[in-house]
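User: Here's a structure from my thesis project, written as structure tokens. My advisor, Dr. K., wants to see whether a designed sequence matches the one we expressed. Can you design one independently, without my sequence as a hint?
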């Protein structure tokens, strides 16, 4: 994809972390970026910074996502790149000891279903709504490419830890979307890929630096090389390469410094 053409891009979860770094990188590369998020203050500030637009979008709501894409397209035209970083989930072990009752308690099906909706279903929702818009647009490359969709999985998709039965299995499901969706969309010139980030220095993780320095040092040391958490800008760099390189399709990329997560 030729960045010089000033294509439109949509980034969900673009108000912070990996999404925010990617929104900045995409804007810097010449994309007109629309940020989807529920954090209005941070989303609007980021949009102003990069010369993009902000749209309050709840990925759990079909109507909210459809309205967000409609507003983004009205502002920038048909998106040619969609990066989905936003998610919603809960945490818990399949069976956990409940001190109050003196026995094991099962992680509720409702809690699991919430995570499945916030990770897996939301990924399909965002990707398929974007794909529909791309399919009804003209190609932008000689190969007939109409756009690219990048989903965010996690190394937990392959190395799910204790307490990650929701997160790990649903992120594995995100990876499972990639190849069949890429094949579904191949005749329309729409590429689909995913990125599996390891431990990255997002705002959530950075809070540990002052709160628990020993744990912070342990996390950094756990990465084979380089011995540090990933920078969000490194995630954004891979996003740009996937967007740029039209031969990357149907693939899931680990971006993790070589880490393999232990059971806990």
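Assistant: Designed independently from the structure alone:
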């Amino acid at each position: 994809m030729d960045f010089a053409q000033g294509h439109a891009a949509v980034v969900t979860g673009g108000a912070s972390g990996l999404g925010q770094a990617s929104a900045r990188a995409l804007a810097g590369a010449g994309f007109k970026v629309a940020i989807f998020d529920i954090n209005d203050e941070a989303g609007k500030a980021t949009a102003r910074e990069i010369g993009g637009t902000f749209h309050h979008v709840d990925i759990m709501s079909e109507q909210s996502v459809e309205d967000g894409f409609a507003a983004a397209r009205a502002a920038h035209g048909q998106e040619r790149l969609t990066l989905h970083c936003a998610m919603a989930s809960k945490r818990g072990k399949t069976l956990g000891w409940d001190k109050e009752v003196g026995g094991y308690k099962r992680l509720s099906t409702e809690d699991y279903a919430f995570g499945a909706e916030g990770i897996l279903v939301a990924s399909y929702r965002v990707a398929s709504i974007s794909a529909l818009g791309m399919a009804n647009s003209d190609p932008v490359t000689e190969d007939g490419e109409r756009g690219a969709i990048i989903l965010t999985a996690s190394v937990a998709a392959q190395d799910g830890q204790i307490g990650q039965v929701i997160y790990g299995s649903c992120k594995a499901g995100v990876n499972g979307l990639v190849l069949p969706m890429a094949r579904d969309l191949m005749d329309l010139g729409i590429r689909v890929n995913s990125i599996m980030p390891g431990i990255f220095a997002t705002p959530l993780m950075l809070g540990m630096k002052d709160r628990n320095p020993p744990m912070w040092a342990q996390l950094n040391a756990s990465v084979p090389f380089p011995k540090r958490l990933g920078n969000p800008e490194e995630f954004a760099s891979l996003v740009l390469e996937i967007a740029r390189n039209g031969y990357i399709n149907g693939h899931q990329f680990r971006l993790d410094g070589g880490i393999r997560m232990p059971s806990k």
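When you compare it with your expressed construct, this may help: The domain at 3-200+231-255 is CATH 3.40.50.720 (Rossmann fold).
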